[in-house]
Recover the amino acids of this structure.
């Protein structure tokens, strides 16, 4: 074998080794790509699950927000009713105070009339007694 033959044989062996190495590398890359594809499929499935759970959570949040709004409106009506009851109680209290003042004023007027009547009664009794005394005194003199 000549030097050219040996060189060609070395080149052919080198090329063969290079092809074997490239094939192994491509097989490893293919295996890695298959694993990556499987992982991406799992991630896609998980993302769909997360998306559906997020949608359910959002729907529940919206329902809770609506419920809170409804309860707030109900509570506002209740507070308005309590406010109206407070105003009504205040009005009743004012009316009762006015009535009490009227009754007290009428009682004072009645007291004054009773005092006047008692004075007139005392005066009448005194006049009667004086008249009776004078009559008795005039009856004795005669």
């Amino acid at each position: 074998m000549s030097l050219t033959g040996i060189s060609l044989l070395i080149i052919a062996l080198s090329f063969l080794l290079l092809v074997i190495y490239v094939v192994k590398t491509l097989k490893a890359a293919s295996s890695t790509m298959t694993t990556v594809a499987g992982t991406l499929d799992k991630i896609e499935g998980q993302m769909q699950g997360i998306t559906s759970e997020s949608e359910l959570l959002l729907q529940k949040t919206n329902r809770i927000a609506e419920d809170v709004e409804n309860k707030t409106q109900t509570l506002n009506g209740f507070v308005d009713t309590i406010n109206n009851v407070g105003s009504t109680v205040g009005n009743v209290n004012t009316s009762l105070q006015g009535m009490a003042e009227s009754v007290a004023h009428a009682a004072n007027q009645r007291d004054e009339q009773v005092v006047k009547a008692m004075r007139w009664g005392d005066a009448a009794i005194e006049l009667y007694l004086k008249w009776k005394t004078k009559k008795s005194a005039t009856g004795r003199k005669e």
